[in-house]
Amino acid sequence: MKRRSFLISTLLAFVWSAMAVWQPLAAEVTLARKLSNRQKFSTTTKIESQQTLTINGSPIVTKSSQTRVLSSQAGERRADGEIDVQVVTEALQAKIEVPVAGLDINFDSAKPDEAKDSGPLGELLKLAGKMKYTVTYDAQNSPKKVDMSREAFNSLDDATKKLVESQLDPNNVLEAIISEEALIPAEAVKVGDKWEKVVKMRLEGQQIMTFKIQCQYEGPARHAGRDVERVATKATEVTYAMEGDLGGLKFQKADLRIEDQGGAMLFDPHLGQIVHRESDYHIAGKIDFEVGGTALPADLDLRMKVTTDTL
Q1: Pick the CATH number of 27-310 from 1.10.150, 2.60.40, 2.40.10, 2.30.230
Q2: Residue 26: predicted pLDDT
Q3: How many Å is the Cα radius of gyration of the chain?
Q4: Which position among 10, 162, 178, 278 has the lowest Cβ density within 10 Å, counted as fewest Cβ atoms?
């Protein structure tokens, strides 16, 4: 009897060990971008930031918050497989405070003329608040071209144009779309898989922050009543640059580091879109400028939170 029990126990142990060894490999998923004829969706982006730029021991604090709502409407796919998506800014609210400069802007695209004495930033917000453009996607749903009217931009004076052009240039808008969608891997992934992408963030005044983003697929999840695939994101490197000069201010070099950063994106496989993305940044370091041949070193401390939701 004891011998039989021992044999049964040994057999069961062998069976469970075999099952552990021969269990199937983790399932792979493909996060395929989709665009259907006449498809509509709305995207809301919220940005909160606080920046402290210390020059010659004097801190300059800038606080800003922004909420933007974009509506997108796809057309009909053509014989060559291309499809156009018209994007319209439905709403833009922004608040920008720079106490040391006496700047306090409250902007609402529903009442754009109420943002008085807001200077070039106000002009940028007014243009952004009525921004419309068309994105052309190819048969594989990759963005290929952005068409945008330049009429309002062309009416600005040269100084204001220089400040705002980087954010309103069609090629830069396309670059931002490509950069964002590149976070979605082209190949199938399984839980634990990692990949890296480079994302550019263009700011006013021809400033550019470039991030190296590490992504890791974490598996299926639920969000707002829908099934999604979750990808954790983390910026591991950041660089800063400024194209040209701004009012005599010339960029020399920067040495920035990421103190803390975390985020995630949620992909809806049924909709074929990123339906939620969140990122928290804390960036610090040194930036060297030059004015009239005189060095102007500065210390930067930037905290920023960005959330985007698509319905």
Answers
A1: 2.30.230
A2: 52
A3: 25
A4: 10
